[in-house]
Every structure is written in structure tokens, then in C-alpha cells.
Amino acid sequence: MTVYFTSDTHFGDHRTINIHKRPFASVAEMDAVLVEAWNARVGPADEIWHLGDFARKEADVPALLGRLNGTKHLVRGNNDPPGTLSSAGWGSVQDYAEIDQEGVKIILCHYPFRSWNGQHKGAIDLHGHSHGKLKPVPRQHDVGVDVWAWRPVTLPEILAKG
């Protein structure tokens, strides 16, 4: 089992194409690329943490979750309505999480922190929300699809990028 991280897919959201200048001609094209990139990396037995802003329409969430590989955990973002949170298909849903992976304490939230639990003891902060536009501080990483070529990433990939 491999653990992956991602954020800010914004499935079905035409506004994201315009606001964040995503290189897609349509929402259908964006969604197809995101699903393909996800499933090319994440297998059925893998685990994935989505750090918020999953989809525009809560009615689309169950079908999307059914098409995406892995056990999916949601850390709620500002664009995740109640119906997204209650959709069948999530392994867990929360506003904030702390996990340990490969000997590293990881703080997970949709929003980037300037200070986080364990920051001065080696913990790292993974977040979304900023679509790659926020200058990070040491040990802070944006895992949004805009930063990572539309695909989920592993902790070793994140740490190798610096």
C-alpha cells in the first residue's frame, strides 16, 4: 500500500479553469485528465488524502468517488459543501489530521499554516488552497494538483522537491 496526497481538484468547476488558468478547454477535459492522472498512480489498495476542494457539485461526488482508486480520506476545504462530506465513498472526513508516515509527523489541513504542531521537531505541513501561489516556509508543501501536474503525490516525492 502506498499513501498519496492531493488537493484542489475542483471537479466540475469551470471557475477554476479561469481563475487559476488551468490549461483545459472544458470542464469535461479537466475532469478526465484529473481522473486519469489519479488512477494512473493510485491503486485500489492505496490510501489517498485529499486536502479539500474536491468538487463543485455535491451531487457529482458519489459517482466521482466510485471512479477513483484507493481509500479516500477528505480533509475539508472551503469549497466542500455538506453533501460532499456525507457522500458514501470516503474512508474518513475531518477538518484537520495528524498522521505519521515513514517516521515523519505530517500535519494535514486544507489551509497552509505559518506555525503547526511539531514544526520545530521535524513535522511537516501539507496543504492545498493556494494553488501554488503561496511562498512556502521550510517543511511546508502545497499538494494541490496545480503544483503537481494534475496528479496525487507521495511523501518521498514531496520531500525530494524540497
TrEMBL record:
Domain Calcineurin-like phosphoesterase: 1-131
InterPro entries: Calcineurin-like_PHP_lpxH, Metallo-depent_PP-like
Xref: Pfam families: Metallophos_2
Family, similarity comment: Belongs to the metallophosphoesterase superfamily. YfcE family.
Protein name stated in the entry: Metallophosphoesterase
Organism: Allosphingosinicella deserti
